[in-house]
């Protein structure tokens, strides 16, 4: 359920305070990509996403098709080939254990056996690209450069991450308005996990006492 902090008299003021810094990575899970062209430090996209340009840093939210866990990758565009509609992405995992898992899966796929006589196929890397928040509060958020297919009134689930941390929390939200000057999408929270509430409350306190 959506958690409600503080006494009723002060609740609305706290919940509606709009924060720009620290900003958030917000994954709407509305556009996903897949590739088998990956290594423990790099992957190739065979389609362009107009949110990404050369040398741009972003957060990818990913999973392997043979593993249940979702993991986070701090990523940067190292090659943007518009002519051939391809991008090369270098990344670092935010979690050391998951980084080792990626290395082990990759290494295993490169090993051959007498029975197989060839290398194993890499599992599919399935991922989405998180948006950066324009502002946010405990009632909702605004993202910029939105190019997805979420319509006003539509409800959806997603994931939020504080930058430079491994902490993530889930939510359910509803799209409520577009903002043309920043190609923005404004959304209000319908539900959030306890983890996400704790994260946002912590970020609010940091914004008040930097």
Which structural traits does this protein have?
single chain, 210 residues, alpha+beta, Thrombin, subunit H, 6-stranded antiparallel barrel, 6-stranded antiparallel β-sheet, 12 strands, 18% helix, globular, disordered N terminus, PilZ domain-containing protein
Tell me about this structure:
There is one protein chain. This protein has 210 residues and is an alpha+beta fold. The protein has one domain: Thrombin, subunit H. Helix content is 18%, strand content 39%. A six-stranded antiparallel beta barrel has the order 1-8-9-12-11-10. A six-stranded antiparallel β-sheet has the order 2-7-4-5-6-3. The longest helix is centred in the middle third of the chain and has 15 residues, at 96-110. It is globular and about 55 Å long. The two termini are 30 Å apart. The model is unreliable at 1-14 (pLDDT under 50). This is PilZ domain-containing protein.
């Amino acid at each position: 359920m959506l958690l409600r902090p503080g006494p009723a008299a002060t609740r609305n003021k706290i919940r509606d305070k709009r924060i720009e810094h620290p900003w958030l990575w917000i994954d709407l899970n509305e556009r996903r990509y897949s590739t088998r062209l990956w290594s423990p430090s790099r992957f190739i996209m065979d389609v362009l996403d107009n949110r990404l340009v050369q040398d741009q840093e972003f957060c990818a939210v990913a999973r392997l098709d043979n593993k249940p866990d979702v993991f986070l990758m701090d990523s940067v565009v190292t090659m943007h080939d518009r002519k051939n509609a391809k991008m090369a992405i270098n990344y670092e995992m935010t979690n050391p254990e998951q980084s080792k898992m990626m290395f082990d899966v990759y290494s295993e796929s490169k090993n051959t056996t007498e029975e197989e006589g060839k290398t194993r196929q890499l599992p599919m890397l399935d991922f989405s690209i998180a948006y950066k928040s324009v502002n946010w509060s405990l009632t909702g958020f605004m993202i910029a450069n939105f190019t997805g297919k979420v319509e006003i009134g539509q409800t959806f689930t997603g994931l939020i991450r504080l930058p430079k941390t491994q902490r993530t929390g889930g939510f359910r939200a509803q799209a409520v308005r577009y903002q043309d000057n920043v190609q923005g999408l404004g959304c209000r929270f319908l539900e959030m996990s306890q983890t996400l509430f704790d994260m946002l409350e912590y970020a609010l306190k940091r914004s008040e006492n930097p």
